[in-house]
């Protein structure tokens, strides 16, 4: 059976944190990590999986943290959005080096380096086999890139959001700080909200719940996990009804 026949999802929104691109660095983009992610994506793109990507900007600038230190929140959030554009271009470069056609669409207009986000054009790119990286968050302050990922997933009519993290899934507590933390194989949107689990922010989770958009949270650092998640193998945590 071919990889395409095994896949459980046809159109996927992959959410990457900015921190995922850090690697062993303290800031910026580690080219080795960008290349690793591109290598993980390549076999999926080759068999026709339609893939949209949203990447955060926390490896370069975090608007919320800057705001807490006295910077104007709107200004800080726009700076964070610009950081996501830098990350998107880095990932685009790694993907295109592997022969994968890629488009960056930004919610903040900057035509010299990215297309403006247009829903119909994004869907057309996906249908033509191009990977679309959505940069610039929602284009509005006070919204996280998690919320941007959910919005874009709904706009492109994705089957699922796959959130790549540094841990194996969703835990009852921070597994780094609490050795007794238990990982959930499956959990409902409501339980994520009521237990205040840090999967995504409350706005993003609520949007997923209202639109019945499932989320799979998995460990990006384990080779082959993106493929396993798309093939429907039981890895990480499934968030849904």
Explain what this protein looks like in three dimensions.
This protein has one domain (3-240): Carbamate kinase. Helix content is 38%, strand content 19%. It has nine helices and eleven strands. The strands form two sheets. It has a nine-stranded mixed β-sheet, with helices on both faces. It has a two-stranded antiparallel sheet with strand order 7-8. Strand 1, helix 2 (31-46) and strand 2 (50-55) form a beta-alpha-beta unit. Helix 2 (31-46) packs across helix 4. The two termini are 30 Å apart. The relative contact order is 0.16. The model has no long low-confidence stretch (mean pLDDT 93).
Major beta sheet summary: 9 strands, mixed
Q: Kindly, what is the distance between the CA atoms of the first and last residues, rounded to a whole number of angstroms?
A: 30 Å
Estimated helix fraction = 25-40%
Give the overall silhouette: globular
Question: CATH homologous superfamily name?
Answer: Acetylglutamate kinase-like
Radius of gyration: 17 Å
User: For the residues shown, what is the average pLDDT?
Assistant: 93
Q: State the order of secondary-structure elements, H for helix, E for strand.
A: HEHEHHEEHEHEEEEHHEHE
The CATH architecture comes to: 3-Layer(aba) Sandwich
Strand order, sheet with most strands? 4-3-5-2-1-6-10-11-9
Which class in CATH terms? Alpha Beta
Task: Look at the helices and sheets and give the structural class.
Answer: alpha/beta
Count of folded domains: 1
Q: And the CATH topology?
A: Carbamate kinase
Instruction: Count the DSSP helices.
Output: 9
| Unreliably modeled segments | none
Number of strands: 11
How much of the residues is beta strand, in percent?
Answer: 15-25%
